[in-house]
Amino acid sequence: MQMPEPDRGVIGRKREIIADLQEILPQESVIYDEDELRAYENDGLTAYRQIPLIVVLPETTDQVSQVLQYCHENSIKVVPRGAGTSLSGGALPLEDGIVLGLGKFNQILETDFENRCVVAQPGVTNLGITNAVEHAGFYYAPDPSSQIACSIGGNVAENSGGVHCLKYGLTTNNLLGLKVVLIDGSILEIGGKHLDSEGYDLLGLMTGSEGLLGVVTEVTVRILQKPASARAVLLGFETSEAAGDCVASVIAEGIIPGGMEMMDRPAIHAAEDFVKAGYPLDVDALLIVELDGPPVEVDHLLERVSEIAKTHGAVYNRISESDEERARFWAGRKAAFPAVGRLSPDYYCMDGTIPRNKLPHVLTRMREMSEHYGLGVVNVFHAGDGNLHPLIMYDANKPGDLEKAEEFGGDILTLCVEVGGVLTGEHGVGVEKRDLMGSMFSEIDLNQQQRVKCAFDPDSLLNPGKVFPQLHRCAELGRMHIHRGQLPFPDIPRF
Known about the structure:
Blueprint: H1 8-12, H2 14-24, E1 30-31, H3 34-37, E2 54-56, H4 61-73, E3 77-81, E4 97-101, E5 108-112, E6 117-120, H5 126-133, E7 138-139, H6 152-158, H7 165-168, E8 175-181, E9 187-191, H8 202-206, E10 215-222, E11 224-225, E12 229-237, H9 240-252, E13 259-264, H10 265-275, E14 285-293, H11 295-311, E15 316-319, H12 323-334, H13 336-340, E16 346-349, E17 352-353, H14 359-373, E18 377-381, E19 387-388, E20 390-394, H15 401-418, H16 443-456
Parallel strand pairs: 2-4, 3-4
Antiparallel strand pairs: 1-2, 5-6, 6-10, 7-11, 8-9, 8-10, 12-14, 12-15, 13-14, 13-18, 16-20, 17-19, 18-20
Helix pairs in contact: 9-11, 9-14, 10-12, 14-15
C-alpha cells in the first residue's frame, strides 16, 4: 500500500515546526514524543500504521485556522482526526505530516428544540447528541454501531449511517450546517438552522469529503421526536439466500422499516455468546426488523412482515414485547464487530453497497470466495439498504494472511460494483478502497473529482494519499498555462 513520498526537508525541520506550533498553541497541545505519538499511529483499520511527525490538539476554531494557515505557508501536510474509529484508514498519519486532532472540541454548543436542531463541536460523540436531548423526547437518527465512541465530525467526514439509516437517512440527510476551516486558514459557515440554502450545495460537497477539503469545527444537526411506538421482530431462516429474498420482498411491498439488519450463523453465535441477546442458534441467517410509528400501524406492519417472512421459509419469529427486549435485540447487532473479534486474532471489516435484489447472489459468491482464499468471513450488514459489512478473519502474525485478506476484500468490493453497487456505503474510501476507485470511476470521473479537490486545496496538503488512486498535481488537471511568466489575457481582473 503506497503512500505519498515523505518530504525529507519537512522532517528535517521538525524541531523548528514544533517551536512554531507552540507559538500558536499551548505547549501541552503539541505532541512530539515518539511514545506519545504511537497513540495516533492508526485508526480503526489497524492493518496499517505510521507514526506521525507531530500531533496538535487545538481547542478553538481560531487555533485551527492559525495551524492550517501555518501549514499552508510552510507546505506541511495535515491529517484531520476525530475519534479515530474510521475503518478505511481515513485518519492514517503521514511520516512528514501533522495530525490535527479534534478531541478537545467536545462541547454541545446549543440545543434548539423550537428549530429541532443541535449545534455541536466535532468531537462530541454521536450518542452524546441523543443523550443531550432525549429528556425532551428527541433523538439524533443516524446511529452507527460505534456511536458510543465515534465523533460527529468524523460522521460528517465519512457520511456515516447506522442501523436506522434505511428510514431516516445517513448523516447527509440529517445535517443542517457546518463551520469549516480551509487549508489557508479561511473560515466558512455553510448552511445553518434553516432547511435549505441557495446556491451550490457546499454542505453536500463537504459531507463525505473525508478530510480532503477542509476541517470541520462546528456541526448543526437535525433532531427528531421519538416515535410513539417501536417494536422489533427477530426472523430466522435456514439459508442466507432466503433471508436476502425476504429483505427484497419487504421493501417491494412498500414497507420501510426503521431498521432492517441481517446476520449469518457465525455472527449470530458470536453476538449471542458476547451479549446474550436471546438470538436463536439453530438458524443460518437472522433478520432484525424494527417498525416504528403509531401503535396500530406498527402492529399491522409487524403482521405483514411476518407473513412475508413465512412465504420465504422463516423458521423463527419472535416479536419484542417491551422496549428493554427491543434494546437487547439491537445490542447483539451493535456488538457484532467486537464479538467477532473473539473468533479470530484479526479481521478486516469491509463496506460495500449493492442493490437489494442482488443479496442472494452476492452472499453465494462470498461463500465461494471464502473457500477459495481459505479465510473465514462473517456477514453483518444493513440489509434494508444493501450496505454489506463482511468481516474477513485472518491472522496478521501468519505470513501472507493479510495479503490474502486484502485480495479477498478487493474481490468482494469489485463484485459489489459489478452487480450495480458501489465501493462504500458509510465507511469511506480512505486508503482501504483507494486503489479500487478505477473499478467504479473512469479516469475522466476521477480527474473531475480531483479538480474539486484542487479548488479547495491546490497544493494537496489536506489528507493526501487518501481516496484517489493517483493524485495528479493541480497543474496537470487543466490549470491556467503561464507562458514565459505571462498570464493569458492580462487585462482581465483576477480575484
